[in-house]
Amino acid sequence: MINNRFSRALVIALVTAGVGYGIFYKTDLETARGLDALFKLRGSRTPPSEVVVVAMDEKSDTKLNLYSDLTEWRGFHTRLIQELQRQGAALIVFDLQFIASQPDHDPALAAAVASASNVLVTDCVQTPTSARDQCSKANKKTFSNTENGNQPAPSKSSIEWKRIPLNRMLRSAVLDHAPFLLSNDAENTVVREVWTFFNGLVEAPSLPVLTWFYYLQRSGALNGIALPKHLSLWLAEQRMQCPTSARQLKNSGLMEDNLTESIEEVLCSDDTRHLDFYGPPKTFRMESYSDVYEGKVGNLSGKVVFVGKVYRNDLSNREDNFDTPLMTTQTGRMSGVEIMATQFANLLEGRLITVPAWHSLILLVFCLLVGLVLTQFAGFTGIIISALLSGAYVGLAVWCFSSYGAWLPIAVPILIQLPLAWLIALLWSRRDLLKERKCILAFVHRVFPQWMPIPTSSKEWFPEINDETQARSERDVLGICLATDIEGYTTVAAQHTAHEMWELLNAYYQVLGYPVASHKGIIADVTGDAMMAVWIDLPAAKKRLGACLAALEMALAVEKFNETATTGCCLPTRIGLHEGDMTLGRLDAGEGSHYRAIGDTVSTASRIQGVNKYLGTRILASSGVVTGLDDVVYRPVGRFRLIGRAEPIELMEIVGLKADIDMTVYTLHQQFALGLNAFEQGQWEVAASHFQILLNQYGDDAPSLFYLAIALKYTKNPPADWEGVVTLTGK
pTM value? Predict the structure, then answer.
């Protein structure tokens, strides 16, 4: 049994893992849904205090009387740089491109930049796939023509990666310069990853990477390493020489191990890395350009200051604004300079989003655990437990993401693998159910004939007919039908395999069927947890007595079976009996024929056994079944209108044989009869009093509890047009 369950769990794990791997590696589901969900579940986190964004925002536009053309701001940058230098900013990074010359402003700006000696600027890179194509029109014209201006523009392929140089005066003044590009994907506009190096630009580093290395140099973290004046070319060389260059840095022993590992990862890893966003737009400390320009902002000493265009109030789709995972309609899109600052802050923390190397194993283990749960706990219980397990896994993934930036897959496991595992388990359960039914059918045909007549031919239904060719297909009879049902069968079946249920039901129906055979009954049908038996072709008194005795012996046999069952399973059984007309006949189904008892008597017997659920009894019969039976002890338990029947029916609880009943049972029945009589006459308080006295004197009596509850209810809210009949709305 254990091996079988583990085998099923393994099959579920392998199938769901295989599908999950295909979706994980062939689609962007995990990125578009899983990564974004992790950001939203984690929420915002505090960015490094060393990073400050100086926003060229709407407030500054108004104060400085400027407009959207960023080249018009150049005349103000000189004073801004001087103010930042006065306050001791560590580095000043412009998310701006200084391509065209402005003779009125460039000399003063170049002097301020050279004096500060800590200014980094963005290179303009012209490429069809860049979302930040802000090279000036004049430069594009110059770029797109040859020097004499007479040659046609080059093809698109020839300008796919073109780095536009700074104007000569500023190029000699800045500390360094590097490109910063963001991917422009029309199908997926959300920015999740950025370039660290540009293969199309001879492995040039991105501006945030360059800024990080200058920050490390100026903070003393790279002391002892021979570095050139301009780190951009040095970084490109180190990148092209990986992993040799990284190994040399590591072997030098001049840096801390964790820093060496971070540098090696940046230098030698993929060209792009996923960003660990700190929150929605405006999460970084952000100061207005005009406030810094006017000296109104303090506490900038040692800060890395990023200067760029930011739209604080306008949330529309402005140029150089981008969708991010934590963006909302209230926060709007994130500016390019904030994304640049985010990449630098990630490098400063040594924390970019990383996918663990063992993520494939995680997917497999998740599938195996879900498979084990679904095979151990069948049905709704298994679904609930597997859902809770999935919730715990998501919680673990969020914790790893929040604490370490480790990106565990959640979209594929939760959206694909878990539902697929549920579907496979459901189909397997359905297959087991069909297999179980086949086993039960085989049991009926192979086991019962060992000790009793089974109606498998017309001769057994119609004994008066000797010639098979003369047999009719149906026969109307007056008889008694006995219906049984196992209480809680669905729960038991869900906990066992089909073969285990076959063995259990085999033993159970042997116990159940013997009393039928010994009292001249015929088993008409067995379906799952239900059995139907009939008594025909006997005098009325013998039919009634035989059916009642069989029911009593069944109850005792099942009780003993439950006590001694080696499987530990309990199969409490409800029994219902009804007398009336039935049709015994053949039902043609394809190539085979099946003989069954059909009619209202059969369905009513089934309904009567269902009333046991309400009254807490085991054997109930319609009043006609016990007529004339002096040796059988029974008590009236009221009139009921069963579901599907308009006319009420009086029911009797069959208690036992007169020789086996103690006198206290008769006294209990008398007290119950007083309460039932008052109940049927609508005397609710009197009825409740009788039932309460009975319970106080004799302890638990399920029918008394049933009627006491109704009587107390009707005391407060009596029904209209009371007929003394209890109407049941369920089977």
Answer: 0.60
